[in-house]
Amino acid sequence: MRVVAFGYMTWGRRTIEAVLEAGHEVPLIVTHPDGDSAYEKIFNESVAELAADRAIPVLVRNRAHDEEVRTAIAAAEADIMVVSNWRTWLPPEVYSIPRLGTLNVHDALLPAYAGFAPLNWALINDEPEVGVTAHMMDADFDAGDVVLQRSTPVTDDDTVVDLFDRTLAMFGPITVDALDLIASGRRDFAPQDRRAASYFHRRSDEENRIDWTWPPRDVFNLVRAQVDPYPNAYCYRGTERIRVLAASLTDDAIGGTPGRIVIRRGTGVVVAAGADARRGRNPGVLIHRVRLDDGRELDAVDYFPRMGEYLTAHPREADQAR
């Protein structure tokens, strides 16, 4: 088939590469300009460079609803359009131009986790599985009929990087298989259950702040959802910000005040967590390794000179051991 491709960053490039390798013709690529955010520099495999390497015409846009874009899509005489990691809304007068419509590929098990950073949010929310959905685009964001969906389980050993690697590997194959289904004449795709839908916004520095009144497992999930190369989860020791690079949960209950550093364990320190930590029924959060704002990385036991200090969500004068 003739496929117009909208894509950006690593997801977009891998998807377009798979479409080309499957033998489809790509007469036009549309991508975003390079971004300045830390997130966009993490997974920055360039779609524009792919277009140049393959001598495919390319348009670079933040938004793609101007007349030049619509004219170029129409002139491409595509059978279908494929969208992967396009960051802004596409209006009906764009996605409806190809005769078979537009296929969008999203790294979530829709209808849940439409929008941004679905893997981070899903891990934070302790979901048992994540995945990728290929769906037909309609006027609502990530809401069209599902063509194919594939999943992978989440274990306590997984970080967001593990989930990224496994779901990224699904993007090309699910796109190619969905195109094959559409080319075969299939149109009886499953509507999404809008009662189960959820939409998530972009993550920012505020979303990575550790609140020690959260249940311990929530803190653990936040840390592993923001491991390198993502911006890390953080808290404060007095006025100094601490990025938590690795953490786990203790097997035993740790009672006390949320945020208090209780005991050393190996190369780490155990912190009490949970609004009900005083009851002594929660596991503790075992911090293994930290990074400071000057770039130094240390085992937690080497950074904290004594037990009894308090970690907080916001900076404050350093606590004294009690």
From TrEMBL:
Chain ranges of the Formyl transferase N-terminal domain: 1-169
Keywords on record: Transferase
Regions crossing the membrane: none
Molecular function terms, GO-annotated: methionyl-tRNA formyltransferase activity
Domain of life, per lineage: Bacteria
Pfam families assigned: Formyl_trans_C (PF02911), Formyl_trans_N (PF00551)
Record-annotated Formyl transferase C-terminal domain positions: 205-304
EC annotation from Swiss-Prot or TrEMBL: 2.1.2.9
Keyword Heme appears in the UniProt entry: no
Protein name: Methionyl-tRNA formyltransferase
InterPro entries: Formyl_trans_C, Formyl_transf_N, Formyl_transf_N_sf, Formyl_transferase-like_C_sf
